[in-house]
Write a structure and sequence with these properties.
With 295 residues, the chain is an all-alpha fold. Helix content is 54%, strand content 0%. It is built from 13 helices and no strands. The C terminus is likely disordered.
């Protein structure tokens, strides 16, 4: 059998898909595009690498997320984002109240001890003591001075709490489900332009994950599709994006009651997706630890 399968992509295929529009010429000696993202050489390299590499044992699957986030922030139209913040604060009372309250969901161990079983306080205590994760895992050292500072820090803190109350645990499928849920909730609640800003990093994480899984980890793709459906269904039922919950006000609520209050439906059973880490990456040494499973 002829192994030169690639040659079967014909000239007619190129003509049909690529079109026959006018050729563009430039005097530039480097790549130039109408997209500022494509024009950024480091971002091009990182996205290509992270979409095409294996999830090897020498790097955590979260590698290079800070690099991509920093570049995306450098390319952002900040006056427009701040304008959208103000417009949405005027339109959405929950968003305005959450920003005005500035209730930071980062807890000292002594605040969490002695909690009643099943409460949010107890669940966070178990997570902080036993998971090895740091809830203050991004924008570390940032001092909160503005509404936007609070948004950046509190969304970081809330991420792990979202894992706890949705049932989408910190494993590969759980991360995918939470990405899907947040995407639906963001676009359902905020105007699309601000929702897209809030979803920048989520879109990157989802894109690179499905690409590399499709290339290297077929069993992961199968469960990712299921997790995405489950996450999307739950996210559409949320009262609003979960990062807007002032969690300090709910510490002694039962998690089941928080779920009912905010429309968090059909959480997976505890441990249901633990196995998905193993099918989404290369084998790890027995002593290795995970820092964030999916991405």
């Amino acid at each position: 059998m002829d192994n030169d399968i690639a040659s079967r992509v014909s000239d007619a295929d190129f003509a049909y898909y690529n079109g026959s529009g006018p050729a563009f010429k430039t005097e530039s000696s480097v790549l130039i595009s109408s997209s500022p993202y494509l024009n950024h050489p480091q971002l091009r390299a990182l996205i290509a690498q992270e979409m095409l590499r294996r999830n090897g044992a020498e790097l955590p699957n979260t590698a290079f997320i800070p690099d991509v986030v920093k570049i995306l922030m450098e390319l952002e139209d900040w006056p427009r984002i701040f304008q959208l913040f103000e417009e949405e604060k005027a339109r959405l009372p929950e968003f305005r109240s959450w920003l005005d309250g500035r209730k930071v969901s980062l807890f000292k161990t002594e605040e969490l001890a002695g909690a009643e079983p099943g409460t949010l306080r107890a669940v966070i205590h178990d997570f902080v003591v036993n998971s090895g994760y740091n809830m203050d895992h991004f924008f570390q050292g940032l001092e909160i001075k503005t509404d936007f500072d609070f948004y950046m820090k509190e969304r970081t803190h809330a991420h792990d709490i979202e894992h706890m109350i949705t049932g989408f645990e910190t494993n590969h499928a759980g991360e995918i489900a939470l990405l899907a849920a947040n995407m639906r909730a963001l676009y359902q609640y905020f105007v699309p332009e601000l929702a897209s800003f809030f979803n920048r990093v989520g879109a990157y994480l989802r894109a690179k994950t499905i690409m590399k899984s499709g290339l290297f980890y077929p069993e992961a793709v199968k469960i990712e599709l299921d997790a995405e459906d489950i996450g999307a269904a739950q996210g559409r039922s949320w009262k609003h994006p979960l990062f807007l919950i002032p969690y300090r006000d709910y510490m002694d609520w039962q998690v089941t009651d928080i779920r009912e209050e905010f429309g968090i439906t059909n959480p997976p059973r505890p441990g249901e997706w633990t196995w998905t880490n193993a099918v989404s990456e290369d084998p790890r040494p027995a002593h290795a630890t995970h820092s964030m499973a999916a991405e």
